[in-house]
TrEMBL record:
The lineage of its organism: Bacteria, Pseudomonadati, Pseudomonadota, Gammaproteobacteria, Enterobacterales. InterPro entries: Asp/Glu/hydantoin_racemase, Asp/Glu_race, Asp_race. Keywords: Isomerase. Its EC number is 5.1.1.-. It is an enzyme of class 5 (isomerase). Belongs to the aspartate/glutamate racemases family. PANTHER family: ASPARTATE-GLUTAMATE RACEMASE FAMILY, GLUTAMATE RACEMASE. It comes from Phytobacter palmae. This is Amino acid racemase. It comes from the Bacteria.
Amino acid sequence: MAKPFLLGVLGGMGPLATLDFQHKLLDATPAQSDQHHLPSVVWNVPQIADRQKALAGIGPSPLPQLLEGIKKLNQAGASHIAIPCNTAHHWYSQLSAASDAPILHIVDATLDALLTVAKKPERVGIIATKGTLDAGWYQQRLAAQGIESITPTEDELAEWFVPGCYAVKRGKLTEGGEMLSLQALALMARGAQQLVLACTEVPVALRAVDAPFLPLTYDPAQALAERCSRLWQDYRLTQQA
């Protein structure tokens, strides 16, 4: 007998991005009543060590706390787990090995969504942490589809992305949105036709300033939410059969 569907969300990175992901889950799920919505259990514990600092070698690893969150979600009965934080996927292999429930990969969900568009872009800009950029997940998968990646320079990361990201963590959404908009415009000036917002706090900030280029962006958290919703809808169909 199939395990009852229950989505586990390993959140807290940051807490606002987790709430935004939960809202995306609601929006992505067609429902006529409360009972039609996707069931989830959320580990929104923001005391997880800073991922950017850990990968830069200036802070402790978040892995023990991430593993604790995975343990709690499995104990709660999660049938699937989503992590609405791109950088945390640096530890995806270790987390998957420790989890009974399969962990959905945010990059796979994003690329699957991108490839469904009618006209595939030739050049895509990536707004992400240095850790995510250095890992190359998005660049490799885009290259496999013949798409060129355009990434921030070191100076841009230091001047716009990092302070913009941490402004969001302080609740200063307009400040963060203004800096992250500059990062986005710089990538587009270098030829990016579309942008992947590969840090889950970026879409929140850009919406706060009503960035005019938002229609040209792909939101990995949205793609992940849609993947989760499809799994839930498929499960409901099997239960009705």
